[in-house]
Input
Amino acid sequence: MDDKKLNPLRLMLLAVLIGYFAFLFTRPQPEEPLVTQIPTPTPAATTTPAPANCPGQITQVAQGANEIRLTITGSAERILIYTNQGNITASTVEAGSAGEYRIRTPGPATAVQLDDCPVLNLR
Output
């Protein structure tokens, strides 16, 4: 074959490669960083006396961005968490053990309730 016929193909291939690498290096960067920082949980201690009809009492609450951690004394069957996105009901059997419970939430929790005990406001 004649070398004059291959020159336009080589130039087109070179132009395509340069265009491809130019696209890779000049494309916009994503707005979100690759490593996201999660804020540390802010503990909120509670020491309210439990009514006589409440077998369980919340002694510690730690709230993260999308979860809440509770320390409970006594016994409870369910934990009701109030958020702006809706309420979440968690079973104490599935959410944790030995008095420490961890529940994922769609947003920050505004209040927590054990069984039919009074509501504990977190704001």
In short: The chain has two helices and nine strands.
